[in-house]
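User: Design a sequence. Structure:
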């Protein structure tokens, strides 16, 4: 007699395993430049465009208490997916539209999270 009955995967285990790839894809994209020209690798605008749903776009700690001077000619920062935008630990980053009369952030997804950022 077998004391260890054969294990059968349940529906919940199957569901959990099938969802793992979705969670595994979430990444953190580092903002490594305060430039806002629309093409600088590592800039906030470029990282937001590259972010997938569930990703975090996070500022490098070196940018604590500094500002991104947003170029109003490029329009607002556009977020098209469910992302988190996080300022650096130990400080904040200011998003400065330089007195332009347009919004700083335009989101097409209701699940955008913003932390440790100052908007001015």
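Assistant: Done.
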């Amino acid at each position: 007699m077998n004391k260890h009955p054969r294990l059968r995967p349940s529906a919940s285990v199957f569901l959990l395993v099938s969802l793992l790839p979705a969670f595994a894809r979430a990444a953190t994209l580092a903002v490594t430049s305060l430039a806002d020209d629309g093409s600088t690798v590592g800039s906030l605008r470029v990282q937001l465009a590259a972010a997938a749903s569930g990703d975090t776009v996070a500022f490098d700690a070196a940018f604590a208490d500094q500002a991104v001077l947003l170029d109003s000619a490029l329009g607002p920062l556009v977020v098209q997916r469910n992302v988190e935008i996080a300022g650096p630990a130990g400080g904040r980053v200011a998003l400065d539209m330089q007195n332009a009369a347009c919004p700083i952030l335009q989101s097409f997804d209701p699940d955008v999270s913003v932390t440790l950022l100052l908007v001015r």
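The longest strand covers residues 28-31. The CA atoms of residues 76 and 104 lie 5 Å apart.
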